[in-house]
Amino acid sequence: DFFAPESLLTEDGRRVMWAWLPTLDLALQGKTIQSLPRVLSLGADGTLRIAPIGELETLRGKAEVLEHVTLDKIPDHGFGHHEQRIVTQLSGEAHEIRVTVAREESDRSRLGLRVFAHENDPELGVPIIVDPTTRALRVGDVSAPFAVADLPEGEDLELRVFIDKYLVEVFANDRQGVVVADLEGWRRNQRGVALYAYGRPTTFEKIETWSLAPTTAGFYEAARNRIWEIETTPKP
Question: What is the pLDDT of residue 235?
């Protein structure tokens, strides 16, 4: 699904990589959809870092911020008990969501969020779950290795979620990146963002949401006003 990666070295020394997304969904085959640009680097411990490129922050609109949201209606016995609560509704086509959970809250419980969530059916949408028992980040049906316990002491859990229409890209502490598609959620106009916690009450330190401006405005302007073309002098 993350096919034919390309990379370049920027003038300021960053290694930037992106890839083609041809098989996330049958409806996308044959389309030239690219992933978000990612900056690759090595951490001080020698492990790979995968971070969304910083220029994406220039696309942000006004932030919506929620702080200290606690999911506490979780029975302390039995199997499968969890709470899922919609905390905001998105509008528009492109958004960034950043969720921060304190280390002491995040390494003992399965938790996360769900995008394209629906009030009347908690199973609809794309789950984004950090699970300490499987040491994995699950996004939709995709699981990738990631564990809060492997983070340096004192580093909180941070999930950055980018939504572009039906595409969902998730970055966990700049250690892991996953991309999935949910065309059905988009078509059903499901725009809820829900928090999820399993097993015990959990407090989400901060939830920040931004709408993102489109990046194609310059393309359409250039198509109309072709000042970028090289001037040529006709041969005599």
Answer: 62
